[in-house]
């Protein structure tokens, strides 16, 4: 009974955390909610399969490392609240994180609608944010072990990457100009006078 209510709250929480993103054609998670009780285990794995986090909800003890692994041929990411791996995870890429404090840690992939989930740590009662996690440095597997293929049916299209790069470049230029201007305003006038 209480577990059912908790699960409902988690799904709502995950939906709130979910960000609008690039939806691939026919993409998104349309599967049922799945659960994995990994309490008492030394580690847990959340697979990204068919644009779904599987299991949707994984329960672990505090401090248990959780490995996210992308089983799809297209990219995903793991966006949490002050934690996560927001860069693209390609096929076979993994992201490992340990949740040190009890809480409900919701997450979502920004590319795929409905691709949400949560890690319930301990009794699930806690802030559930990045203040209580430890992350191992991300290392992409070498090219000899992974064939990275972004298919037309999933992931980011080259066009959207190009648009994002242009927008990023413009933003960077605008910030640089802004910083330069604000810096020049801070210099006393007498120092800017020719000697
Ligand atoms: Cu995704």
Protein architecture, described:
The chain is an alpha/beta fold and 195 residues long. Helices cover 25% and strands 27% of the residues. A five-stranded mixed beta sheet has the order 3-2-5-8-11, with no helix packed on it. A four-stranded mixed beta sheet has the order 1-4-10-9, with helices on one face. Strand 6 and strand 7 form a beta hairpin. The protein is globular. About 21% of the residues have low confidence. The structure holds copper (II) ion. Copper (II) ion binds next to loops.
Q: What's the end-to-end separation, in Å? A: 80 Å
Number of strands: 11
CATH fold label of the largest domain: Immunoglobulin-like
Q: How many domains make up the 3D coordinates?
A: 2
Strand order of the largest sheet: 3-2-5-8-11
Q: Layout of helices and strands, plus pairs?
A:
Blueprint: H1 2-17, E1 35-37, E2 44-49, E3 52-54, E4 57-60, E5 65-70, E6 76-79, E7 84-89, E8 94-99, E9 103-108, E10 116-121, E11 133-135, H2 158-186, H3 189-192
Parallel strand pairs: 1-4, 2-5, 4-10
Antiparallel strand pairs: 2-3, 5-8, 6-7, 8-11, 9-10
This protein binds copper (II) ion.
Copper (II) ion (CU) is lined by residues 51, 76, 109, 111-112, 115.
Output the keywords.
single chain; 195 residues; alpha/beta; Immunoglobulin-like; 2 domains; five-stranded mixed β-sheet; four-stranded mixed β-sheet; 3 helices; 11 strands; globular; binds copper (II) ion
Summarize the structure.
The protein is of the alpha/beta class and 195 residues long. The protein has helices at 2-17, 158-186, 189-192, and strands spanning 35-37, 44-49, 52-54, 57-60, 65-70, 76-79, 84-89, 94-99, 103-108, 116-121, 133-135.
């Amino acid at each position: 009974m209480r577990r059912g209510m908790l699960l409902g709250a988690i799904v709502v929480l995950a939906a709130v955390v979910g960000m609008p993103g690039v939806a691939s054609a026919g993409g998104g998670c349309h599967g049922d909610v799945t659960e994995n009780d990994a309490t008492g285990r030394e580690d847990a794995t959340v697979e990204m399969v068919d644009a779904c986090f599987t299991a949707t909800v994984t329960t672990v003890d505090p401090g248990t490392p959780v490995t996210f692994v992308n089983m799809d041929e297209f990219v995903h990411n793991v966006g949490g609240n002050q934690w996560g791996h927001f860069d693209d995870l390609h096929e076979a890429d993994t992201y490992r994180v340990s949740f040190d404090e009890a809480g409900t840690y919701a997450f979502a992939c920004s590319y795929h609608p409905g691709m949400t989930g949560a890690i319930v740590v301990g009794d699930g009662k806690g802030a559930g944010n990045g203040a209580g996690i430890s992350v191992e440095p991300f290392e992409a597997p070498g090219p000899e072990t992974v064939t990275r293929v972004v298919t037309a049916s999933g992931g980011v299209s080259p066009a959207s990457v190009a648009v994002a790069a242009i927008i990023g470049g413009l933003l960077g230029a605008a910030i640089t100009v802004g910083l330069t201007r604000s810096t020049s305003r801070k210099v006393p006038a007498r120092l800017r006078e020719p000697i």
